[in-house]
Amino acid sequence: MLSYFYPLQLTRWNCAGQLWKKQLLGKRYSSGAVNIKTVEHSPFWSRSLKQLLGSHQFSDKNVIAGESTVRDALEQMEKVDMSIVAVTGTQNDWLGIFSERDLIRLIARGGNINNMYVRDALSKKEGVATCFLNQRVSDLGKIFTTQNVQNIVVMKESSLKNTIHDLAGLITSRELAQYFHSMEPAVVEEFEHVLVKDMLDHNKSKVHERLNEQSILAVELSSQVKDAVHLMAKYGVGCVMVTSDHSKGALHPYPDVIGMFTEREYIRNCLLKGKDKDNCRVGDVMQSNMALVTPEFSAAQFIRLFADSHVRYLPVFSTSPEDAQDSTSMCLGLFSIKDIFFLLFSSG
């Protein structure tokens, strides 16, 4: 549990009869208009990518040969706790990247991880977002915001983007959150007084559009894993919410929400354990221990929670610590780290 949060434990019995706990983590700040320094003068966004990568620059652990199987790639990603690897050809040429999202698309097409080569399941380099090592963190923000991508490849200065040796790093929004978390208090101060609800108001039309498209998909507890995977592939998302059977859906009061099912749960709890998605229930492999975020969270808290808990998504509920057991509490959506940086960068 994070020391700077004040937890309120909410407990309920799930439909399997087991005690299920939610932690509502929050700290109140006075609400106000969004007040973020301009990107050009922000001590966070103006840092160089060399500073962001630090000692985590590109290495052999980030690379897999194209003739390896998809299972080999997943096992390597799991071992080093990465959601993405770069794929190389026989002559050290850079072919592209393979990510958890590529896996979901492959499985939805009926692919087999044991006999499918990574080179046949990757995202080709021509479609991969890139930037150079001498650029700034703000350039990552622009790419995440304008290109709606999950991953960015950082190239060495003046590279031709042809060989694996031209790569300097692989960046996901998770790495961006961990970098944020490691910075001195003075740098992150600009995000301490920005509330999630302020960002929602500031970007109302864009946020609602994103939530309607990406953040409210749900499946029931007894659904088959294959149905959840096909739903994620259809809408291009990495997570769906899990509700109790015969519920009114994820947008109804929180007692209906049981947990989350993500790409990571599918890989760890299903694929790598040899479970058949056609005969496995979502409830058997989902993430049930959720941390709940409220609109009163500050942006800095949100990002710290991502960095500390190693989760990829967090649900936002329209409630506060004082009235958390109010049955009118509604799920506003499911946010990724990228969504928060999208809002922060757009606000700046």
Automatic annotation (TrEMBL):
<feature type="domain" description="CBS">
    <location>
        <begin position="286"/>
        <end position="348"/>
    </location>
</feature>
<dbReference type="InterPro" id="IPR000644">
    <property type="entry name" value="CBS_dom"/>
</dbReference>
<dbReference type="InterPro" id="IPR051257">
    <property type="entry name" value="Diverse_CBS-Domain"/>
</dbReference>
<protein>
    <submittedName>
        <fullName>Putative signal-transduction protein containing cAMP-binding and CBS domains isoform 2</fullName>
    </submittedName>
</protein>
<dbReference type="Pfam" id="PF00571">
    <property type="entry name" value="CBS"/>
</dbReference>
<dbReference type="InterPro" id="IPR046342">
    <property type="entry name" value="CBS_dom_sf"/>
</dbReference>
<keyword id="KW-0129">CBS domain</keyword>
